[in-house]
Amino acid sequence: VIGHVLLLGVVTGLLWKYYRSSPLGNWYLPRLALKLLAGIGLGLLYTHYYPGGDTWSLWSVAESLAQRAGAAPADYLSYLLGLNSEYSQGLGLEAQPRVRFFGGLLSVLHLLTGGNYWLAAAWRSLYAHAGLYRLSVRLPLFVALPQRATLVAFLLFPSVLFWSSGVLKESVLLGTMGLVINAFVAAYHDRAWSAL
Questions:
Q1: 40, 118 contact by CB (below 8 A)
Q2: What confidence tens digit (pLDDT) does each residue in 77-130 have?
Q3: In sequence order, which ranges of the chain are alpha helices (DSSP H)?
Q4: Which residues contact 100 (CB under 8 A, 6 or more apart)?
Q5: Could you give the 3-state DSSP secondary structure of residue 153?
Q6: What is the model's pTM?
Q7: Comparing C-alpha atoms, which of 121, 109, 128, 114 is closest to residue 40?
Q8: Dist. CA 86–CA 72, nearest whole Å
Q9: How far apart are CA 42 and CA 169, in angstroms?
């Protein structure tokens, strides 16, 4: 646990050092703190008020997949690469490709954190924060948009802040969308893709 907390601190410090001179630099650490608290809050909400909801169901799937990884690492790796759909047989995931996919991603984090849900929530919150923060800082450079609008829309809007935190599919989805949209808009603006 201490190693993960230190690593989270190092990654956070490196990202903050990179972004602290950006137009939203003063918001980086407070917004990350809100994101981490939202991830904890989400876990507690599902623990006490919505038992069996998405976050714990996904964690259970990840745990089952991770447990099988020790017995057959090659099969586990081929499953993660999409080459072995039989690996998840018996887990009830056959008709749920989205759960299979996100459960597989989360199972890697399950293995890396030693099965610690709260550390996994912190890592996924940090990932979502990094992707949305990158988009918030860079989008106004390419599109006529006030910086405050991106701050509110991507970083402070309560439903975005909360539902893209912790162990949910949306934390990966929104973090990745932020990174991909940023890359697309930057490449389009710079005419890096002549086909566009």
A1: yes
A2: 988 887 877 777 767 666 677 777 888 899 999 999 999 999 999 999 999 999
A3: 2-19, 28-48, 54-71, 73-80, 97-112, 117-142, 147-150, 158-163, 169-189
A4: 85, 88, 93
A5: helix
A6: 0.87
A7: 121
A8: 12
A9: 13
d(CA 13, CA 133): 15
For the stretch 65-81, pLDDT in tens is 898 888 888 888 988 88
Q: What is the DSSP letter of 152?
A: I
CA dist 175 and 120 (Å) reads: 15
Look at the chain and count its residues: 196
Distance CA 57, CA 145 (A): 39
- Tell me: the pLDDT tens digits for 156-185? 888 888 888 999 889 999 999 999 998 898
Residue 145 CA to residue 124 CA, distance in Å, equals 28
Separation between Cα atoms, residue 138 and residue 160, nearest integer Å: 18
